[in-house]
Amino acid sequence: MAINTRDNPIDLSLVIPSIRPEKINRLIDSIPAAIGEYTYEIILIGNYQPNFGCLYLEDLGSPSRCVQRGAAEAKGKFMKWSTDDGIYNPNSLKDILDIAYTLDEKDGIIAKYTEEGPANWITGADDQYYTAWTHADQRMAGIPEDFKIAPVAVYNTEYFKAIGGLDCQFEHINMNTHDLAFRVQKNGGTFRFSPAVVMHCDSRNFNSDEHLPLDSAYQLNDLPKFMALYDSIDAAKDRIVIDYDTWQDSPSPWRRFK
């Protein structure tokens, strides 16, 4: 694969699924100091029309459906999804893009993040956190011990689309980002780490009405499907490119688990 070249007027597409208009402006305001002289576009997918310039797609579907729809419209050389409840650290996106332009098109960059919640504000800054077998729900025969997960990553946009992006049978942004990272690595891609933490997500909503649908989707839908896919040494071994349009099978509005 060719080394990435700066041949695109937009360096980075930021895809943001959002349901919290009261927090999005704070995130947007943090981007200029994070990205420096690089160019960017914002693609917002959700349930309200923002008051700042961006591409807006109205969609009440699952987080993965919204990211997949937004990424389909991305025009940047690279793309990254983002939650709406965090703040980018100064120079964090600039440092990532400095690295991205030195990599092969198949390669990605893990954007380290921290968040409020049990231990995550510590472990999310630690490189070891992003090794799949660090996590009990990923110690499966179909996942090599040294494979990395990439909950939030920067990808070459065209490669993200070519490999099929996220599999929207997984509804929460979690197991589908791991699945994508595994497919990238099986296809010869590698991951670098961001030099420092890129974003801190500071909503304390782990037991809130906002977070419960995500937790139930993970427990009742995503994890069982993920375990069935990767539970044996031969499971998913040839799974690399998937259909990009899996989002079309994901309903909008999003069905909530009880």
- Unreliable segments (pLDDT under 50, ≥5 consecutive)? none
Element-level helix/strand string: EHEEHEEHEEHEHHEEH
The helicity comes to 25-40%
Spatial sequence of strands, sheet with the most strands: 3-2-1-4-8-6-9
- Number of helical elements: 7
Q: What fraction of the residues are assigned to beta strands by DSSP?
A: 15-25%
Number of strands: 10
Largest sheet: 7 strands, mixed
Rg, Å, rounded:
17 Å
Could you provide a short overview of the structure?
With 258 residues, the chain is α/β, with parallel strands linked by helices. Helix content is 29%, strand content 16%.
Overview of the structural elements:
By secondary structure, the chain is α/β, with parallel strands linked by helices. It has seven helices and ten strands. Strands 3-2-1-4-8-6-9 form a seven-stranded mixed beta sheet, with helices on both faces. A three-stranded mixed beta sheet has the order 5-10-7. The longest helix is centred in the C-terminal third of the chain and has 19 residues, at 212-230.
Name a few traits of the molecule.
alpha/beta; 258 residues; 3-stranded mixed beta sheet; 7 helices
Write the layout of secondary structure elements.
Blueprint: E1 12-18, H1 21-35, E2 40-46, E3 55-58, H2 63-72, E4 78-81, E5 86-88, H3 92-100, E6 108-110, E7 113-115, H4 120-123, E8 153-156, H5 157-162, H6 175-186, E9 191-193, E10 199-201, H7 212-230
Parallel strand pairs: 1-2, 1-4, 2-3, 6-9, 7-10
Antiparallel strand pairs: 4-8, 5-10, 6-8
